[in-house]
Specification:
two-stranded antiparallel sheet, 5 helices, 3-stranded mixed β-sheet, about 140 residues, about 20% strand, alpha+beta, CBS-domain
Length: about 140
């Protein structure tokens, strides 16, 4: 199976200059765990995870107990905390190759890019686990 058959093509991206507050809103409204960050030319520049966000923000941010420091932190730009040294994949690569990339690099998502480094999809460890679970279920019902 090729990655292109499994990757999510409905990408949720933000610019490098978007704020942590904007990312927090996207994570909460879209119920996702990864946001791809693009540069001014719409090329993949980084990734931010919900964990990255929660590591650098306070649990009181966005609540009635928010402090001035919390408010200032939420104005921080994504390029200040995003992961930049990305492991990426091409759509034609196999699912087995993707599994090795996840395992060898301890990552939770794999952006899929074209030859110009434009994001065209994303695959997460949950996507791979779903495929394995469905294959196993099919095998057990045979």
């Amino acid at each position: 199976m090729k990655i292109e058959m499994l990757m999510n093509k409905k990408l949720i991206t933000l610019s490098m200059d978007a704020t942590l507050g904007r990312a927090k809103d996207v994570f909460e409204k879209k119920n996702i765990h990864h946001i791809l960050i693009t540069d001014d030319e719409d090329l993949l520049a980084g990734v931010i995870t919900d964990r990255d966000l929660y590591k650098c923000t306070s649990p009181t941010a966005g609540t009635s107990q928010e402090t001035p420091r919390d408010t200032a932190l939420m104005q921080k730009k994504l390029h200040q905390i995003m992961a930049r040294n990305l492991i990426t994949s091409q759509a034609h690569q196999s699912l087995n190759e993707a599994v090795l990339l996840f395992y060898d690099n301890h990552i939770s998502c794999l952006p899929v890019v074209d030859e110009k480094n434009k994001a065209i999809g994303i695959i997460t460890w949950r996507d791979i686990l779903k495929v394995l679970a469905l294959q196993y279920r099919k095998k057990m019902s045979s």
